[in-house]
Backbone:
């Protein structure tokens, strides 16, 4: 009788073990879950404000609409300048001969404040970038994706006898000089939003040909 009882208990334990294993197999997932702890791609660093281009507002620390007397404090004394009839164009040379910052100021004689005011800022160094990483050296096709439609203002020949076209987004206050034949941006200019750049650009390129 005892042997029979032991046999029954052993059989019951065996069946319970088999059932437990079957339940475990049924609850196992068919696929391995994704590793949610995997490292995500790092976000691009925020642009350095010293080299940030803000259309219609500023390039670096030079802001459209600021008084010209602050320029020396921000950039130091200019390397060259040309002034006449209340208008002045200043140049600061960069680390390379082709890299410079230029600022155009206008004094409103007879206005409320007879001080030179920054009307446009231009850079050629690729260190300066917009928040979406547009800077000199970028192709026109990529610039159009961010700032199109662009209005062609004028064209001129640079010192290397290359044709350079000026494209402007008047509403946003940013213009791009694009050099042929590669159609790469060689200079970026920030100006007041909504203003026509044609007349303001004359001091930079007196020999430019306007596009009607």
Residues:
């Amino acid at each position: 009788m005892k042997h029979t009882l032991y046999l029954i208990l052993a059989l019951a334990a065996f069946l319970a073990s088999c059932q437990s294993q079957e339940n475990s197999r049924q609850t196992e997932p068919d696929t391995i879950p994704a590793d949610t702890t995997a490292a995500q791609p790092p976000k691009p660093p925020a642009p350095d404000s010293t080299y940030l281009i803000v259309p219609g507002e500023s390039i670096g620390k030079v802001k459209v609409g600021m008084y010209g007397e602050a320029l020396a404090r921000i950039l130091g004394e200019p390397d060259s300048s040309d002034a006449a009839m209340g208008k002045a164009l200043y140049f600061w040379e960069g680390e390379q001969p082709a890299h410079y910052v230029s600022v155009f100021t206008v004094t409103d004689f007879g206005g409320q404040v007879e001080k030179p005011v920054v009307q446009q800022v231009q850079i050629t160094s690729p260190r300066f970038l917009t928040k979406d990483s547009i800077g000199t050296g970028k192709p026109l096709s990529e610039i159009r994706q961010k700032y199109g439609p662009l209005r062609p203002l004028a064209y001129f020949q640079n010192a290397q006898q290359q044709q350079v076209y000026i494209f402007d987004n008047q509403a946003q206050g940013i213009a791009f000089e694009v050099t042929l034949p590669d159609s790469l941006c060689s200079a970026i200019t920030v100006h007041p939003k909504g203003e026509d750049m044609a007349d303001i650009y004359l001091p930079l390129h007196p020999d430019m040909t306007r596009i009607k």
Observations:
- Residues 49 and 155 are 31 Å apart (CA to CA).
- The domain at 49-206 is CATH 2.60.460 (protein yfey like fold).
- Residues 2-27 form the longest helix (26 residues).
- The chain has one domain: 49-206.
